[in-house]
Please model this.
Amino acid sequence: MVKCSECGYENIDGLDYCDGCGAKLAAASGEGGAAVAPAPEAPVAPAPEPAPAEPAAAAAEAPVSSDAPTGDITPPPSAPEPAPAAAPAAAAVASFKAKLSVVRGGRKGQEFHLEDGNNLIGRWDPETGSFPEVDLDQDDPEAKVSRKHALLRIDGGKITVEDIGSLNGTYVNRQPRLSPGSPVDLKTGDEIIIGKTFLKLVVDPIS
Model:
């Protein structure tokens, strides 16, 4: 069994993508890498020997000459304390919300609000009981959309889409068919074609 690193779903061996969420399985290729030996520890330099102690001061102070200046001696000003280090800047937070809107084929005007992370595009699978975030089952009477068709991902303010081995392919802005497993960047207004359903990406800033 191959456990999905995204959702924890236990998949049977040989699958490229998770049956639970559609994410690519890290162990699908079956390539075993050689174990990496831990890096040797750097040798520790011996501690420096302590400096010899200063000779003890004479028990009796030497008599002060009458010619020596008198009066208080002002000590040198102390060095200013360093200013505290500035706190690290807060990590950037995505300040937008995104959705897919059906513009052609199926229920025109139907909207699917997208979540941070993985958003599976496809159709409900009665065998596994998985529901994709973008479920086109009612928009695809001819079954042109695969149950696990494409994966749209929102991560760190970046939006990408990739085909995950669909039968009829995934297209962006009517360009050539996407190669499975090769995500492409998306921006607001881009058009994604899944089967015979045309979806438009809409990105709205959060006020």
